[in-house]
Each structure stands twice: as structure tokens, then as C-alpha cells.
Design brief:
five-stranded parallel β-sheet, 51% helix, 17 helices, 379 residues, globular, Rossmann fold
């Protein structure tokens, strides 16, 4: 022994976490979108927020919640984990009451004022409490749960903001009847703002833009688009530099060009490149960045499963779109080269790929899929 005490270095933390909701310093500023959504929340304007998967809708909602948290009661419901109308009613009552009251005993003291018919089961939890309600008769019981946000707003003298993510799933639990009851109750709530968000863009827009649906033209439609490079480039450069692994601006440019402003995929690629540097491997040059992205795409279960689920004509069209970026996809030359049959056939194939969420407005929704397709070969 030398007598010298070894000091364990503090482990470095990768600054590009991409699988969790980003708020505060981790939120890459969508300045205009954040301003618009925050203003709608505090002013009572209901919003339908839509985009393909992983564009950052949940992070935008939670960042706005963080900004208005002192002035509003905020509640978030994730429909991905809900499988029935009773679970939805329970989630609504629980999320609003926990945000408003904090502790079970405070909620129980006021329960007679905010729930008139339902008798919820309340269980204390380490981080607050859980609530479950039973919907025996939809027409009788659901309106009681739906009215709770407005009653809480009146009792607590604060605006309540409720965000329901993947809202289009509500149609699975009763179709038009549920939509009708929700619309009837929500339109009377003067002290509650709602954000209805989702990534099944076609279904969500149909709910709010079709004249025969209860929610027709009842919200501000807000599309979340890809991230402009001017937002992302300073963020990427500063995060690499602040953690001791500076990269050249042209590397950041290549990352942004390959990922096309897709928030999650950009962070995922940066996460991988940062890990390489932390392990003592050099950050790739411009050409190596694409190789790193392709490695991630090949290891991504979603990309491979989605590709394997496609029919040959769909694959050929994706290869054409990924390879012939500047060409006219409907030209006779491209149709012959990739055996795309005809312009009408291309239109139908694009429609089917948009329904699957692989294309959005005729373009790739996921840059990993685009780069995968560019490396593939026609069947």
C-alpha cells in the first residue's frame, strides 16, 4: 500500500436523455409553441395538439405545466395505460384531486362538494393517494366524474388544466356516446382548460374536424412540427462542450441533417455519440455520424418490426422516397425504376403508409426509418 487514498471519480452523466419527458433545462425551447400552448392553458382555450410519435408533445405539455404550476392546478392523463371507461373516470378523478389536494385526508374532507353521486375508493400512497371509481351506468355516473375539474376549480379558486394524451383512444370505450357526454359537460366548464393530444393524427383530426362528431370545431387545432435546426444546434454543441467532449459545428450540422429535426431521434443519436466519447472512443467524423445512426436504426425494434410488416410495394415506395430525395416521385422514370405501377397506385400506397404512421404528409415520420430504407434494396 502506498498510503495514498484513491478518490473515485464522480461518474459522468449523459446529457442527452431521450426516453423520459424533458422539462426545464432539458427542454429544447420550442419558443412559439410553448408560448401559444401556455397562453391557451391559462386563458381557457381548449387545444388539440397533434403530431407523429415522439415529436415531443408530452414534454411540451409538462413544460407548460411547470411554467403555470403556481397559478393553475394541472392534471395529466395517459390514455395508453387505460383500458376502459371506468379506468378513465378513475384516472381523471385521481389526477385532478391529487394535484388539487395533495393528501387523501384533504380530498376526503371536500369530497361531498366535488363528487355528488360517485363514491370513490381512496387509498393512501407514499406519494399521495390513489382513487378508483366505478361506472355502473354511463349516462348517470360518467358526468359526475367529468364535472369534478370544474367543481375543484371553484372550490380551490384556481384554474384547472387537464391534458389527456392519446385522446383518440376514448373512442374505443363507447364511441359517440362517450364523446357526446364529454362534449356536453366540458363546454359548460368555464374554469377548466383541456389539452387533447395524440399521435394517431388521422383519427384525432377526424374527431375534431368532422361535422358529424360531437367535438367538431370545439378546440384550437395545434400541430407540433419538426424542430428547426436553429433551436437544436446550440443545445447540441453546448451539451457536448459542458461535459468535456466538444464537437465541431459540422458534426452537429450532420446530426441535424440526418435526423431532420426529429426531437427524440436527434437526442438518441447524440446520446450514442456522447457515450462513445465517454468510453474513450473518438467522436466520428461527418461520415461516421451516418454509420452510427444506421447502427442505431438496425438495433431499433420498432424500425425492424415496422419494415417487416410492410408489403413489397410499400417497401419499394419507401426506398424510392429515401433514395430519390430530389426527384419527382410520380415521374415515369421513378415509377419504372422502382416498379411503382402508376401515380394512382403511389397515392394509395402513401395513404396506407400514413395510416401506419410511417409517413406523415407524404414524408418519413421517423428519420431512422428513412435511413433504413435508403440502405435497403427493392424486393
Amino acid at each position: 500500500m502506498t498510503g495514498v487514498r484513491s478518490v473515485r471519480e464522480k461518474p459522468l452523466i449523459n446529457p442527452f436523455e431521450y426516453k423520459t419527458i424533458s422539462v426545464g433545462a432539458d427542454f429544447v425551447d420550442r419558443i412559439e409553441e410553448k408560448k401559444t400552448l401556455r397562453n391557451c392553458m391559462v386563458s381557457g382555450q381548449n387545444v388539440t395538439l397533434y403530431s407523429p410519435r415522439k415529436y415531443g408533445k408530452s414534454s411540451l405539455i409538462h413544460e407548460c405545466f411547470r411554467l403555470i404550476g403556481k397559478d393553475c392546478i394541472t392534471a395529466y392523463i395517459d390514455m395508453n395505460v387505460i383500458n376502459g371507461i371506468g379506468e378513465f373516470a378513475s384516472a381523471l378523478v385521481e389526477s385532478v384531486s391529487r394535484a388539487a389536494y395533495g393528501k387523501a385526508e384533504f380530498f376526503m374532507r371536500d369530497i361531498g362538494n366535488v363528487l355528488s353521486g360517485l363514491r370513490p375508493v381512496i387509498r393512501p400512497e407514499p406519494d399521495g393517494f390513489s382513487v378508483s371509481v366505478k361506472i355502473d351506468e354511463i349516462e348517470r355516473d360518467l358526468p359526475d366524474a367529468l364535472s369534478l375539474p370544474q367543481k375543484v376549480a371553484e372550490r380551490r379558486r384556481k384554474r384547472v388544466v387537464v391534458a389527456i394524451d392519446e385522446f383518440q383512444r376514448i373512442g374505443e370505450f363507447g364511441g359517440g356516446e362517450i364523446e357526446r357526454l364529454m362534449r356536453s359537460e366540458i363546454q359548460m366548464q368555464k374554469n377548466v382548460s383541456y389539452v387533447f393530444s395524440g399521435s394517431s393524427v388521422h383519427m384525432l383530426r377526424e374527431m375534431f374536424e368532422s361535422g358529424d362528431r360531437p367535438f367538431f370545431q370545439s378546440t384550437k387545432m395545434m400541430e407540433l412540427e419538426l424542430m428547426p435546426p436553429e433551436y437544436f444546434k446550440p443545445y447540441i454543441l453546448s451539451r457536448f462542450e459542458e461535459t468535456g467532449f466538444p464537437i465541431a459545428p459540422e458534426i452537429a450540422d450532420e446530426i441535424l441533417a440526418l435526423c431532420g429535426g426529429h426531437p427524440q431521434r436527434t437526442k438518441e443519436l447524440c446520446f450514442d455519440l456522447w457515450n462513445r466519447a465517454a468510453l474513450g472512443r473518438p467522436v466520428p467524423d461527418v461520415g461516421g455520424v451516418k454509420s452510427a445512426l444506421l447502427e442505431l436504426a438496425k438495433a431499433d425494434g420498432y424500425v425492424e418490426n415496422a419494415w417487416n410488416s410492410l408489403k413489397a410495394p410499400q417497401r419499394r415506395l419507401l426506398i424510392a422516397l429515401a433514395t430519390e430525395k430530389d426527384a419527382q416521385i410520380y415521374s415515369s422514370e421513378i415509377i419504372r425504376k422502382y416498379d411503382l405501377k402508376s401515380p394512382s397506385h403511389i397515392q394509395r400506397t402513401i395513404g396506407s403508409l400514413e395510416e401506419k404512421g410511417i409517413l406523415y404528409k407524404g414524408k418519413f415520420a421517423d428519420p431512422f426509418m428513412m435511413n433504413w430504407a435508403a440502405e435497403a434494396h427493392p424486393d
